[in-house]
Amino acid sequence: MEIEKRHLVMVILGMVVVLQGCDVATTAYALDRGGQEANPLMVPVVESVHTMLGAKLVGVVLMAGVAVMAERSMPGGAVYPLLAAWGMSLLPVVNNVGQIVGVL
User: Fold this and answer.
1) Span 65-101, pLDDT tens digits
2) Would you give the end-to-end CA distance of the chain in angstroms?
3) Which of 74, 75, 48 is nearest to 56 (CA)?
4) Where does residue 78 rank: exposed (0-12), middle (13-18), buried (19+ CB within 10 A)?
5) How far apart are CA 92 and CA 20, in angstroms?
6) pTM (2 decimals)?
7) pLDDT band for position 35 (cuts 50, 70, 90)
8) Range of the domain at 29
9) Distance between CA 61 and CA 16 in Å, rounded?
10) Could you give the dihedral angle defined by the CA atoms of residues 24, 25, 27 and 30, in that order, rounded to the nearest 10 degrees?
C-alpha cells in the first residue's frame, strides 16, 4: 500500500470512529429526553452508554478486520469497506440530530 493510501485509510477509519462516538452521544442525548431507539436490534444495547460504547468498539474492530482482509486480497481494497462503514455510520448520526432538532 502506498503511503498516500495508508493516510487515506487512517483518515477514513478515524472518521468512522468519530461518527460512532457521535452516534453514542446523540443517541444517549435523545434517550435522556424521552426518545426511543428505532432499531429493535439495538434496544437492549442502548440501555447504558457503556453497552453502546462496547457494541460500537466491537463493530469498529470487526470493520477494521474486514478492511485488512480486503487490503490483503486487493491492494488499496481497504478503502471500500471503510467508505461503506463511514456511510453507515453517518446515517444514524444525521437521523439522531434530525430527531433532536425536530427536523425529521
Assistant:
1) 999 999 999 988 999 999 999 999 999 999 999 999 9
2) 41
3) 48
4) buried
5) 9
6) 0.88
7) confident
8) 3-101
9) 11
10) 170
| Residue-wise DSSP of 20-62 | HHHHHHHHHHHHHTT---S-TTTTTGGGSHHHHHHHHHHHHHH
* Three cell numbers written together for 9: 485509510
Query: Contact, 37 vs 27, CB < 8 A?
Result: yes
Place of cell 460500537: 56
Task: Count how many domains the chain has.
Answer: 1
Please tell me the distance from the alpha carbon of residue 59 to that of residue 101, in angstroms, as a whole number.
27
Three-class SS state of 74: coil
CA-CA distance, 34 to 4, in Å (whole number)?
45
Q: At what angle do helices 3-32 and 49-73 cross, to 10 degrees?
A: 160
Nearest to 13 by CA among 75, 62, 74, 73: 62
